[in-house]
Inverse folding.
């Protein structure tokens, strides 16, 4: 999808369909972010949870956070998920990891092993957006 198509895609202009991708590995982040943009969503990229917190605190209209679990910085993806749960409970959180972390202590709206199956991630995010639209009539 070219820049012109992306700019005119009906979902790209909707602030209520923004995904924050939090991933410290640049190539992995680029691949998943591009896949989500091709699905028609606005994507904000963050290199770690500290950067993601800055985005979230800026007032950006993020609806879903897709975050790696293990990242450098003052907090990891689990810490970010806890922040989102307590401070921004309307935002959905999806976690991902190349390892099998114990996530039973943290509520989340999905988990994906890496490497990503982009089609599965897109389908899951589409389902989360559709559920949110049914409850808020967006």
């Amino acid at each position: 999808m070219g820049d012109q198509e992306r700019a005119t895609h009906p979902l790209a202009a909707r602030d209520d369909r923004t995904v924050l991708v939090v991933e410290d590995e640049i190539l992995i982040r680029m691949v998943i972010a591009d896949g989500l943009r091709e699905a028609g969503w606005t994507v904000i990229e963050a290199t770690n949870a500290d950067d993601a917190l800055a985005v979230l605190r800026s007032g950006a209209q993020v609806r879903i956070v897709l975050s790696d679990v293990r990242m450098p910085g003052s907090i990891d993806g689990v810490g970010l998920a806890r922040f989102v749960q307590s401070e921004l409970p309307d935002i959905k959180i999806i976690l991902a990891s190349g390892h099998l972390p114990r996530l039973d202590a943290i509520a989340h709206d999905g988990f994906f092993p890496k490497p990503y199956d982009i089609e599965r991630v897109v389908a899951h995010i589409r389902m989360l957006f559709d559920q949110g639209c049914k409850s808020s009539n967006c």
Summary: Confidence is low (pLDDT under 50) at residues 1-14. Strands lie at 18-22, 42-46, 64-68, 92-97, 111-113. The domain at 3-136 is CATH 3.40.50.2300 (Rossmann fold).
